[in-house]
Structure to design on (201 residues):
């Protein structure tokens, strides 16, 4: 896509890799590799650079937690030919020498681009009992900005009030994002950031 840099930091075999797929499903399974599976829906063309499996490092910090702390993360953006992307994120906390300490945050959801090609609806559910509805837009062909319109929490979840996220394809083709949150009585401020390289797609 014009304006999107080639992924020079991608895994060397990323064009041949994909997310695990169920080839015996009676309907099309998700694909995170645009070379395989159904064609990307025209409505998703503005999100095309996101499709793939991304993995890298990030940092989490907030006044209510001990930090900053480094984490590893994998994000999968995939599609099944319909006008949305499926989204899955898995993280793990890292020690001072890069060793894996334990599993961390998990998210799943959908990115739903609208017919105008710019507006996006995003639904994200966290394993910690939080569901968020974001609205946003494609700022250009390589960056997307979303902000919560509604946050629903279970009785055991943290008191999250709002979130604002900015995703972008940066020089070299990596995926970077920042997440600002208002929660636990604190004003909205930076909470998460990460830089991820393409490993499949």
């Amino acid at each position: 896509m014009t304006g999107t840099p080639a992924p020079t930091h991608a895994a060397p075999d990323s064009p041949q890799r994909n997310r695990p797929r169920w080839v015996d499903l009676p309907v099309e399974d998700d694909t995170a590799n645009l070379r395989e599976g159904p064609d990307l829906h025209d409505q998703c063309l503005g999100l095309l650079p996101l499709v793939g499996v991304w993995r890298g490092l990030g940092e989490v910090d907030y006044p209510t937690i001990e930090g900053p702390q480094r984490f590893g993360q994998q994000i999968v953006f995939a599609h099944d030919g319909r006008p949305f992307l499926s989204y899955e994120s898995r993280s793990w906390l890292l020690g001072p020498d890069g060793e894996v300490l334990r599993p961390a945050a998990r998210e799943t959801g959908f990115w739903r681009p609208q017919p105008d090609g710019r507006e996006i609806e995003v639904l994200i559910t966290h394993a910690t009992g939080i569901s968020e509805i974001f609205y946003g837009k494609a700022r250009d062909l390589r960056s997307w900005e979303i902000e919560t319109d509604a946050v629903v929490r279970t009785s055991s979840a943290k008191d999250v009030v709002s979130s604002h996220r900015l995703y972008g394809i940066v020089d070299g083709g990596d995926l970077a994002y920042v997440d600002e949150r208002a929660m636990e009585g604190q004003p909205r401020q930076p909470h998460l950031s990460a830089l991820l390289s393409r490993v499949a797609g």
About this structure: The mean pLDDT is 93. Strands lie at 52-60, 69-78, 85-94, 100-113, 119-126, 130-140, 143-153, 160-169, 175-183, 189-200.
